Amino acid sequence: MFLPMSRAPAPDPALAAVLRRLRKDRGLTMESLAFKSGVSIGSLGRIERGRSSAAWSTIRQLADALDVSMAELGGAVDAENR
C-alpha cells in the first residue's frame, strides 16, 4: 500500500510577527531568546521571518522563554490574523 508523503505545514506569518514582537517587547535579542529557549538561532530566524514552520514543541519552548502561555500566544496570533 502506498502512503503519500505528508507535507509540512506552511509557515504562519502571523506567528512570525507575534514572536518577533514579543521578543522585541521583552528587550531580547535573537541570540538571547535562542539561548533561553534552547531553539537554535538559525531556526528562530527562519520562524521569525516566516520562512519555516515550527513544531508544537518548539513553539512551546519559545512561549515559555517569552513567559507567555500557549493560550496567550494563540490569542495574539488570532488577533494578528484579523
Plain-language structure description:
The chain is mostly helical and about 80 residues long. The model has no long low-confidence stretch (mean pLDDT about 95). It has helices at about 15-25, 30-35, 40-50, 55-65, 70-80. It has 5 helices and no strands. The chain has one domain (about 15-80): lambda repressor-like DNA-binding domains (434 Repressor (Amino-terminal Domain)). The relative contact order is 0.19. Helix 1 (about 15-25) crosses helix 5 (about 70-80) and helix 2 (about 30-35) crosses helix 4 (about 55-65).
Tally of domains: 1
Order of helices and strands: HHHHH
User: What is the 3D shape?
Assistant: globular
- Helix coverage percent of residues? 55-70%
Q: Please identify, by name, the CATH architecture.
A: Orthogonal Bundle
Compute the number of helices: 5
What's the total count of β strands?
A: 0
Distance between the termini: 42 Å
CATH T-level fold name: 434 Repressor (Amino-terminal Domain)
Main beta sheet:
none
Quick one: CATH superfamily? lambda repressor-like DNA-binding domains
How confident overall, as mean pLDDT?
A: 93
* Backbone CA Rg: 13 Å
Low-confidence stretches: none
> Tell me, what is the CATH class?
Mainly Alpha
Q: Could you provide a short overview of the structure?
A:
With 82 residues, the chain is mostly helical.
Write the layout of secondary structure elements.
Blueprint: H1 13-25, H2 30-37, H3 41-48, H4 56-65, H5 70-81
